[in-house]
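Q: Give me the 3D complex with zinc ion.
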Amino acid sequence: LCLSPKSLRHSHIFPEFFYDRTYGDDGRFVAIRRDPTIKPRPFQKGLREYLLCSDCETAIGRCESYSSSLLRKLDAGVAENGYILHSSFDYTLFKLFAVSLIWRASVARNGFFAAARLGPFKERARMMLLSGDPGPPHQLGFALARVGQSAIAQTVVSGPFSFKWRGQRAYHFVARGYRWVYLVSGIAEQFTAHFPFIGATTELRVPILNESDSDFLDWMKKALPWHGR
Ligand SMILES: [Zn+2]
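A: Here is the predicted complex, encoded as structure tokens.
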């Protein structure tokens, strides 16, 4: 991350807590990947690569532990009118955590993360993480939605998928029962009224998607192109 010539640690690409619910009794988990040439197989202890020096890992770890506890609070949150409201949250820590996810995916070599190609935004993400400055909500902005009913969705960690949203590059993955959606666009500011960027409001407002298991599996089939062929 900092590009300094220090030794890199065998870091998690997605944090360990994303996989909490995916481990079976034997401590292995099955991840969903989009490369049809590689058979899905159980991985152990999440996916790791040599990504971060110990200083950078510590800095990201701070965002990670905050976000882990924030998500637990959201899990326990009571839905009102289809939303979970959380009255205050630390935008800097949560945004940097989200940026670290897409950045880690973009630099990872594992095919599971291959779709995350951030182009010039890769360097912007790196600078954000290095400076600790999350920028405005629309810059490398993200939105979060809870997958409400599907029990399967609670245990799946998907790799990022790339798609177009209003002609702009967007990425999306499912982890820990939430859909994480990123708008990666130089003109993202134009969409501040239309895209529910986290940080645009001081309270956290997370919509609940009423997806059943079969809805969720339908989505998986569409998102994973080899699936339905
Ligand atoms: Zn570093």
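A quick observation: Residues 54-76 form the longest helix (23 residues).
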